[in-house]
Amino acid sequence: MSNGLTSESEGKTRRDFLGLASMGAFFAAMLTALGGTLRMLKPTVRFEEPSAFKIGKADNFPAGLVKTLDDRSVAIFSDMDGLHAVSLTCTHLGCVVQVKEKGFACPCHGSKYDAMGKVIGGPAPRPLPWYKISLSIDGSLVVDTSKEIPAGTKFRV
Amino acid sequence: MEQTTRSGMGVFGTNLKNLWRNFKSSMIRTGIPASDRDRAETMVGNFFLHIQGVKVHKNTLRPGYTWGLGLITLSLLLILSVTGIILMVYYNPGIQNAYNTIKDLSFVVIPGKFMRNIHRWAAHGMVAVAMLHMARVFYTGSYKQGREFNWLVGIALLVATFALSLSGYMLPWDQLAYWALVIVANILQSPKEITDALGITPYFDPGGFFKELFLGGRIAGQESLTRVYLLHVVFFPVVIFILVGIHFWKIRKDGGLSRPEPETFQPSGPELDPLPVPQKKGGIFPTYKTYGLMELVRGRTPSVDKDVENTVMSWPNLLKAELAVFMVCMAVMMVLAYYFDAPLKEHANPLIPENPAKAPWYFLGLQELISYSAFMGGVGLPGIALLGLALIPYLDREQNHIGVWFSNKQGVSVALQTFFLSAVVTIGLLAFTVNFGWFRNWWPDIPQLVITFINPGTVLVGLFVIWSFWILNQTGSTRMAAISLFTFFLVSYVILTYMGTELRGPNWAFYWSKSQWPIH
Fold first, then answer.
1. Is the CB of residue A102 less than 8 Å from the CB of residue B349?
2. Residue B27: φ, ψ to 5°
3. Does B303 touch chain A (CB under 8 A)?
4. In angstroms, rounded to a whole number, what is the distance separating the alpha carbons of residues B415 and B481?
5. ipTM at complex level
6. What is the pTM assigned to this prediction?
7. How many CB pairs under 8 A join A and B?
8. Residues of chain A positioned with their CB less than 8 A from the CB of B182
9. Which regions of B30-163 does DSSP assign to beta strands (E)?
10. B12, B97, B324, B365: which one has the fewest Cβ atoms less than 10 Å from its Cβ?
11. Among B168-182, B354-368, B467-481, where is mean pLDDT lowest?
12. Closest by alpha carbon to A126, among A98, A101, A151?
């Protein structure tokens, strides 16, 4: 006598189906919970100093000046074409590079960069980034280390 | 009525008098076992002993077979757990306080310096001994015959050991700790090397994601220390103890430690509390014993009446050996801790990188590879090495010569050949790189992707693989190929580690000795 509960042609009973469905629901719920939990590990607010900071008026940067801001790991260069800010964090493993006569050198693994920040030796995978310089309302210059610009772009005062 | 009360008091008095004895027998039922039957019952009935078998094969007790390496690793882990908890009493994971609390431990707390030293030397010892244990298991072919999965658990344990060591290294928040943290964060970021070369970083940036997850921000600071601390004192300890449990459980389920076939096993050394060989009186089971089915295990182990003359009672033979190993570990750690202090550098200073900034010794081989390419040295090659180790038991399916060092004469000769070849090749490649540099020194404009995929590290691994395939072709044996691959891995690990530890100085330049380092 057919009880209507089984469908022999498909080889699956209603019980199998419900079992699979509940297992599926279980794993879907667990995965969602895991996703939500893991999301929590990625910080939303950073308790760090803002990435943009003022460096003073343009008058303080006469052509030919090189000023390193150690606590920001940035060097400001000034020449006839304008100002530019170059990161001093080595792109290999994050050591602080030193400004040399014609470029930069990293003490950790011997990476060398030319004056434009281009890699000319050692294991560094990327050139040193150039950061955007802009003018704030009060007339002082602002460097934003979250905004990279193409090497060679200089800020004209 | 009065009589009942008196008798009640009497019973109570008797119970009170027997309190200690009854408590003891409720906790340990057998007392100190006198007969083999009691010994068996003690092993089965005690929570801490029951993970071990009632009887143990003589080969398992042979110091020349296991060298006690697994036990030493466990002993060191236990020492680390106890000293670690004690150190946590004073340590404070804040970037303002961490360094000061370590100083407090080192100079004020009694015996804080001693505890910290023990913790440090046990951690270093555990890494070294775990590696040696892996080599022992490999060279005796103990990853075969149902023990494949336990080999994988062992590799997971090795990774957990490295993770614990590295996260512990970062806690004092001195210069070593800070720059190790920065370097690890940048290794996590190193997939950028690939995504940058492909130009997809703005859309898909796993490197940046991992770095931010690890640091809890963009720069190393309080958030990073909190995360590293949690990993070190909660996450990885829980993981490692669960894995240790599985590792030991699997040893039992896989039929005890590996050993040679009964026909070839020659018991040597002093007699270990021998059990008389059963005198059979007909039938397959001796008449004076009863057997119960305790468990079904894979392999040939609990075969009745076979190899039984080579087993001894675990109580006291195995337990004595275990206690002896633990005592020796304690003694060695204490002597090391008494004479050699754990280093503590200046307070972390983000403005002045250590030069050279070196990780702990067991990572300096990797750091040498990282100095060629951050991605390959820090992610690519370690990943390939771990995958290769994990695949060994599944690609080498030969099921003979188990429990014999190097399998046979051919194995010894393959291992020796590979030893000399890999030493020459590794040293040669390093000497070449030190003297002539690599692609970027010859063609400064070469794309980064070429260096990422072709550098001394990848060339070395390529040579590993070619050599072991050549051995496979010559011998027709996957076990011989595995021996050559593993030996190559071990020898190059040691040489690269020596190179990174002793021969690299400021700017990661080559120096024969520290006395030649320039003033800086």
1. no
2. -85, -50
3. no
4. 10
5. 0.80
6. 0.87
7. 91
8. 93-95
9. 55-57
10. B12
11. B354-368
12. A151
